[in-house]
Amino acid sequence: MIGITGSCGKTSATRFLDHALSGSLQGHGVHLFNGQGFVSKNILKVRRSDRYYVQEVSGHRPGFLATVMPLLKPTISIVTAVGQDHYTNFRSREATAQEKQTLVRVLPRKGVAILNFDDPFVRPMADVTNGRVIGYGLSADADLRASEISATWPGRLSFNVDYNGEKARVETRLAGEIWLSSALAAIAVGLDLETCAKRMATVEAVPGSMALYKTPAESWFINDTAKAPYWTIELACRTLLNAVSPRKTVVFGPFSDMGGGSSKKYRKAARGRWTLPIAWFLSVRSPVTWSAWSMAMLPVAWYVCLRFGKLPLFWLQINWKARSRWSRLTARRTLSVCLYRSKNRLPAGKRAAVSTAIAVFVIQDAAGQADQSALTSSSTCSTWPLGLVS
Question: Across the 390 residues of the chain, what is the mean pLDDT of every consecutive 10-residue run?
């Protein structure tokens, strides 16, 4: 049993590890469905013939992991990172780390704790486990260490990995250095490096997590709509900021669970882009509510955008012109800020879907027929991968 937790990277690490192991062993991994009810149902699917089982585990509130551990009973535990997700429940990274370390504290003496040594809140967890510790990262004392990293767009992530004197070059299809930690976590589980390198060469990104899409107009989209914590904005943008591309567009949706007002954080994000070659900075601010309507509309709008290269404005007018009023939409190339707000009385889920769709129309119109446009987004749908790349 392999359990994976962390403030970010755990879903991708679970997917990568499952992909790496499935080439040689029978078993399966479960990502996204990481609550107590899902874990219990998933474990019932494990068969005696399975050689491995990988389960992503949430730690979204204090004490939650303790309720899952009697079910999972991991022999290998992986902690990817400690950040400021679920701010309203923890209020500090120290409290978040206290919850995450439950996964390594319950390991038996023959168990293995695989820890991100580059994270100052994960590294001390080596002192609270009974099992063997394997550290990964860029640190000089990490057991599994990466070097000679290359991830500049339009290239993909590649790096050298070194473990106990054994070395291998890993070439992936993934965009950006943000994937490095999850990739190392998957490699650290124990297969030989050459086998892992071959499997990592064919793995795809989790939909909604820095996933790549190409439009008929030869523009590239990076769909990062699975989560939208404020503290990960710079990580997501780094891929775009370092990219070699004639035009770049950034769109931010609502930040999730950050506490306090959002206006200052949006301004800070905008100011942070001033010294970098970004052609447009778009901020789509609208309420987000779970609803079947909004979940249905977002992938439809996304499909139309991919299929036709831009989103027809009349498609929106037919549905909402008679029932809604829109505030002004401004886009100033010199200021590089476009802010859209909906002030109608439609349900919040509809406002989120419509404002996102209009943002994509504006972006596509602005991008024109650029050879390569890179776009990154913090989602209008903060916890579900069916988000419109905006």
Answer: 85 88 78 64 77 82 80 87 76 84 89 92 90 90 90 88 89 88 88 86 83 75 73 74 74 62 63 47 40 46 48 32 32 27 38 45 38 35 27
Structure tokens at 186: 């998957």
Structure-derived torsion over alpha carbons of residues 15, 20, 26, 32, reported in degrees to the nearest 10: -10
* Whole-number pLDDT of residue 363: 41
The pLDDT assigned to 18 comes to 86
Q: Domain segments of the chain: what residues?
A: 2-200, 211-378
The burial class, CB within 10 Å (0-12 / 13-18 / 19+), for 374 is buried
The architecture of the domain spanning 2-200 is 3-Layer(aba) Sandwich (3.40)
CATH class in words for 211-378: alpha beta
Q: Please, what's the b/e burial string for 163-189 (b: 16 or more CB within 10 A of its CB; e: otherwise)?
A: beeeebebebebbbbbbbbbbbbbbbb
